[in-house]
From TrEMBL:
InterPro entries: RNase_HI-like, RNaseH-like_sf, RNaseH_domain, RNaseH_sf. It comes from the Archaea. PANTHER family: POLYNUCLEOTIDYL TRANSFERASE, RIBONUCLEASE H-LIKE SUPERFAMILY PROTEIN (PTHR46387), RIBONUCLEASE HI (PTHR46387:SF2). One of its GO terms (molecular function) is RNA-DNA hybrid ribonuclease activity. Pfam families: RVT_3. This is Ribonuclease H. It comes from Methanothrix thermoacetophila (strain DSM 6194 / JCM 14653 / NBRC 101360 / PT).
Length: 142
């Protein structure tokens, strides 16, 4: 079984800051992959955009490297977890943009979404901060 921990942030302000994310992929408790990235900066960037982009990046990795395996996605964003599991309605423009794409990508993959407290998502949180810091340093050196 595959377990994915994912997280996103928008800093130094939300909305409008730098949206960055991190995710980790485990198989039966063994780390397979760490991923992180920056979505963008400024208009349209939010914590939720970063969270959904983390999910997209993780799903792309799974499609290439672990097709056909059962996946449990764990995150500390109540909104993302509840919308992806169908417990909450999709209302915002951001969610309406991401949820159908992610659901389509997950067709044929046995999966579930589980909310975890922030403390249990510390590694993914650290990766999103890492992506933000790399971006910030790169911007200052240019």
């Amino acid at each position: 079984m595959i377990t994915v921990f994912f997280d996103g942030l928008c800093s130094p302000k939300n909305p409008g800051g730098v949206a960055a994310y991190g995710y980790l992929v485990y198989r039966n408790g063994e780390l397979l992959h760490r991923g992180w990235g920056v979505v963008g900066e400024g208009s349209g960037m939010t914590n939720n955009v970063a969270e959904y982009e983390a999910l997209l990046a993780a799903i792309r990795w799974i499609q290439k490297n672990a097709p056909g395996e059962r996946v449990v996605f764990k995150g500390d964003s109540n909104l993302v977890i509840k919308q992806m599991s169908g417990e909450w309605r999709v209302r915002s423009h951001t969610s309406k943009r991401y949820v159908p794409i992610i659901k389509s990508m997950l067709e044929g993959i046995e999966h579930e979404f589980v909310w975890v407290p922030r403390e249990e998502n510390a590694e993914a949180d650290a990766l999103s901060k890492h992506a933000y810091e790399i971006y910030r340093r790169g911007q200052r050196s240019g």
